[in-house]
Amino acid sequence: MIILAVSGEIKGRPIATKQAACQREVAARNRDTPEPVKSLTANAQPAPLTAKTSGPLKGHIRVPGDKSISHRALILGALAVGETVIEGLLEGEDVLNTGAVLRALGADVQKKAGRWHVHGFGVGGFAEPQDILDHGNSGTGVRLMMGAVATSPVTATFTGDASLRRRPMKRVLDPLALFGAEATAREGGRLPVTLKGAREPVPVTYRLPVASAQVKSAVLLAGLNAPGHTTVIEAEATRDHTERMLAHFGATVRREQTADGTAITIVGQPELKAAPVRVPADPSSAAFPLVAALLVPGSQLRIDGVMLNPTRTGLFTVLKRMGANIAIENERSESGETIGDLLIKSSSLKGIDIEPEIAPSMIDEYPILAVAAAFANGRTRMTGLAELRVKESDRLAAIASGLKACGVKLELGDDWLAVDGGTMLGGGKVETHMDHRIAMSFLIAGLAAKSPITVDDTSFVATSFPDFVPMMEKLGATFARPNR
Ligand code: S3P
Question: Closest residue (by CA) to atom 5 of ligand 1?
Answer without folding.
Answer: 140
